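Open question from group meeting: does this chain pack into something compact, or does most of it stay loose? Before anyone orders reagents, we agreed to write out a predicted structure and look at it together. Recording both the input and the output here so the notebook holds the full record.
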Amino acid sequence: MRLLGILFVAVITIGITTGITTGTATGETIVVSPDGPLTIQAAIYLTWDGDIVELTDGIYTGDGNRDLTFFGRAITVRSQSGDPTSCIIDCEGSDAENHRGFIFENVEGLDSVVEGLTITGGYDDWSGGIYCAAGYPTIRNCRFIGNTGSEGGGLCVKGPAEISGCWFEGNHSTGCGGGVSACCMFGPTATFIECTFVANTAGMYGGAFRC
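Structure tokens returned:
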């Protein structure tokens, strides 16, 4: 089944230029572009542990490019350029139509990685940006801009995830933790390294951060 999935994507690439690059040390790299044949979620469907989904610069919108899940896989979703200001997931969420960037709910660990992306426009229960409900990923060099949630507007995490070099700006929680809510009552909590919080707000308390 693995080989069939690779061949299918390779055939698509012959005519459309977006597809799969093989031979990396950690697995295979599936390249996704905003106007290509694959959405981010469709590319994740094709992965196995150790693979990389690499996003070219641009703005990703619509179904398949938001509400993303790793399905418990130890993979990396990252920008190709490494510049989060140029690689943007716009969730286009609202009170009437909820959407977020990512949800981790399948016991993902630190080898599940999100890197070098901006997540904006999320609006959902708990977090509008990334909701780590039952998964503990690594999140590096990401920007959370203008997301809204009921608990952790930019990010809500309930376990020992690792978040480093991230920027949280203009996020809002209707409850607590405008930028981040890191819930401690579930056991070990997340590690935050060199993160920046700017102008986040909360309806109750913890405009920047709630633990």
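Observations to bring back to the group:
Confidence is low (pLDDT under 50) at residues 1-25.
Residues 34 and 60 are 5 Å apart (CA to CA).
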